[in-house]
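[recover] target loaded
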């Protein structure tokens, strides 16, 4: 799947253009490179996909914020990905309607490959892209 990749921090713009500034690291537009194969999906590499494709779980009753909060939980992947120093999930980026909303940075050894956000909105298209240090970027999408 196509994307515009920030050469500084690895953020991928998925709205068919490179942003004026990278929403993650602030790098200018010229730092972005259009790549036809920026993001992998289950169709690309079936064997790798079960450990890399994000699994999105929405919980519409939040235990932390009582009103109007949707918990967006993500794990990588259907078979849990390793978190070893030599092979781990580096970050998980979240998008709503193709626009960046958050990045969660992970470190190996003490963390599971998972993250959660508390959303104030209850509609829109969610996209989640994870970056594996060995196997690249993988996406999952779901409507809220
Ligand atoms: Fe991997």
């Amino acid at each position: 799947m196509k994307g515009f990749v920030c050469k500084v921090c690895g953020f991928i713009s998925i709205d068919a253009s490179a942003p004026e500034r990278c929403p993650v690291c602030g790098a200018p537009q010229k730092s972005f490179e259009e790549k036809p194969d920026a993001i992998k999906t289950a169709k690309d590499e079936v064997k790798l996909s079960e450990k890399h494709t994000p699994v999105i779980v929405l919980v519409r009753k939040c235990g932390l914020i009582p009103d109007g909060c949707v918990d967006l939980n993500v794990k990588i992947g259907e078979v849990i990905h390793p978190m070893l120093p030599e092979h781990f999930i580096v970050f998980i980026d979240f998008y709503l309607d193709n626009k960046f909303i958050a990045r969660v940075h992970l470190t190996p050894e003490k963390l599971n490959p998972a993250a959660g956000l508390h959303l104030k909105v209850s509609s829109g298209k969610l996209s989640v892209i994870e970056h594996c240090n060995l196997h690249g970027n993988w996406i999952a999408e779901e409507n809220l």
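[recover] notes: The pocket of fe (ii) ion is lined by residues 52, 81, 87, 132, 134-135 (CB under 6 Å).
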